[in-house]
Amino acid sequence: MQTKDTKITIPKLFSDSSNWVIYRNRLTYSLNAHGLSAHLTEDEPFDEHLAKGDVRGLTPEACWRKGQGIVMTLIGTSVPDDVLNRISAEGTAREVWDALRQDYEDHTLMTTVDLVQWFRTKQCEEKDNVCTHFQELSDLHNQLAVIGKTVDDDNFTATLLASLPPSYNHACTLINSSVRLGSVALMPAIAREIVLKEYERQVARDLKKGTQDEAFSANAQKKKKRDVECHNCHKCGHFKVECWAKGGGQEGQGPKRKAHAKEGTAAVAEPQLEAWAVLKEVNDG
Fold first, then answer.
1. pTM for the whole structure
2. 79, 111, 143 - which closes a domain
3. Domain that holds residue 276
């Protein structure tokens, strides 16, 4: 934000009030640095201001009016349009500021209540991703800090641990024991590190168990199929739809080597029958 004579930079105010605290602090800091903060609390020039006399050819009253214009311009160009429409009817910079502050601080109070409740009650369910859960809690923690609601390390750590499912009770006990023994300070970073290691251990365990279960299931299916009797050929190890014998679902589709074996048998049998016929003719003669 810039005016012709004075350069002052402040952030844009968001409609959802999420950056109200930062906006408020930066605006007041900037106005203090340029000697304009009195316009946020006074409607008329006060005695100390009047005692300064003329400044750069401007009377105290003219300087005051100029300062009023700068402050109102800064506020007007840094707030959303709908907010400007609500506060523009006010006559002085102080009245505009009071209207803006009341609007946003009421909104911020409700936002704070919602964020605090969400932060305190958020739970990680069994099999949820603990990394994602901790990141979401950290985001809420930062949002609370932005709107002026600071959560100290002890409370943040307690919230992290209380939000975990029962399978992490052992890890929580380990953290508490370490603190009681004085071997480690109870800080959010330490708690996260221990819990995330436990999360990685549980994930690795579940993956291994899943692989073992799949292998067991495959063996069980294989064993079960081995005991099945085909209703077509009455042999074990396959179903009727898989049967290669006549009447089966895959009739005649068996391995070629069996077909060759049958052909070989037939080839041997035929000479025997033919030889028998020759012998019979000789005997008749």
1. 0.46
2. 111
3. 257-285
